[in-house]
Write the C-alpha cells for this entry.
Amino acid sequence: MSFLNKLNSGKITTLFPGRYLCFAPPDWYLSDLLRAVVYSLTRKNNIENLENRLKEVLGPSYVMVTNLGRTALKIGLKSIGLQKGAGVVLPTVICNTVIKAVIEAGCQPILADVENNLHISVKTLNSCQFERAQAVIVPHLYGLYAPIQEIKDWARSKGLYLIDDAAQAVGISVNGSYLGTFGDFGILSFGPFKSLSTPRGGALISNYSEIIERAEKNMIERESYYWVIRRVLGSIIKFHWRPYYLKIYETLNHGKKKASGPYNGVSQKRITNEAFQLSNLEAQLVLAALERTVSIIPRRRKTSYEIWNLLKQFGKFEFIGPHDAPYIKIPIRLHEGLTAEEAIRLFRLMGIEAERIYRPLHLWKEYERYTSKPLPEAEENWERVFLIPNLAAEGLFGMKRLEQAFKALSKI
C-alpha cells in the first residue's frame, strides 16, 4: 500500500510521537499578564491609553476600541448610515464572522470571487452584482494585503463606502499608510491567530469624526469579569501551552475531527450579547503586544524568506504572495498530486499545525444564496491551497521539521 493510500485509510496514525513543535505562539507573554493585572487594578484608563496609542501609530484621527473586530465592523456599518437591506460586497474567501457581522447589521451580503492570491480585485468586483451595493469590504488575509488603493479608487468611482478590514494586517503599511486607514472606516482585531495575537480586542478607526461619534452612541456594555478571567486563563492553556493542549485535544477527539477543520479548539460558549467593551485587563495586553510590532513584523518577514528559500528545492509548491511578507500563516499552493486536505493530514501527522484556508462562503449552505453565479477561482484555491504556521519563534529545529514535511510531501 502506498503512503498516500495509508494516509487516506488512516493506517498511519503518527510519524513523530510526542508533543507538537511547529506552531505559531501568541504575541503576549505571561509577564505581560502580571503587569496587566496590576494596571487593571490601579488604573482606569487602559482603554483610553490604547485608543491614543493606536492614533499615534496608525495616524487616523478617531479610534474606538471594541471587544472584537466583528463588533467594530457591525457598529461601523450601522454608523455610516446604511439602510436596512443595503448590499455589501465581500469576498467569498473570508472569515465567516465577517458575513455574520454584515447580516447582524441588517445588510445584504453580495459575494465576489477572488484572484489566485486569495484577495478580491477590481476585476472580480466588476464581475459581481455590485450594482445594488452601497459598500465593499476589503480584507487583507494572513499578513498579505489586497490591492487596496485600486479598490479605493474603484469604490469612489461607483459611489460605494469602503471598509478596510485589517483584522489580519495590524502594523502593515502600504505606500506609507497603514492598512485599516484606507477606507471610510477600518477595523482591526487583536484576537487569537490575528497579526497581533492576544486573547481579545478590536478597534473601529476612521478619519471622519461623525462615524466614530455615531458608533459611540451605540455604546456597548461592559462584559462580566468572570468571562474575561475565564478567557485569559483559557488562552494560557490553549496558546502558551499549545503543544500539550493539542495532544490532549487530539486524544479526546480522536476520529471525530476532519483534517480540514480548524485545529485550534478555540470555540467559546456563546453568550447572549457578544458586543462588549474591551476589558481594561485585555486592553493592557494589547498595548504590550502593540509595542512589539516593530520586532514581530521583521521577524515574520525573515522567517517567510527562509521558508521560501526552502521551498525552491521542490517543484510542487509555491508561495501565494511575496516571499518576504509578514505572514501570520503562510498560504502554499500545490501544483500537482495532492489536494490541500491530504497535505494538511500529512503535516499534522508530522507535528506541524497546518490547516485549510477559509472555506468559500458560497459553499456554505446558509450563505449560498448570496451569489447567483459560480466563483471558480475561490473553489480552485480551496482545493489547492493550504496554510502552514509562520515559525518565527521556532528557530532552526522548526525549519528542519518543515523541510522533512515538504520532502515527504514531494515524494507522493
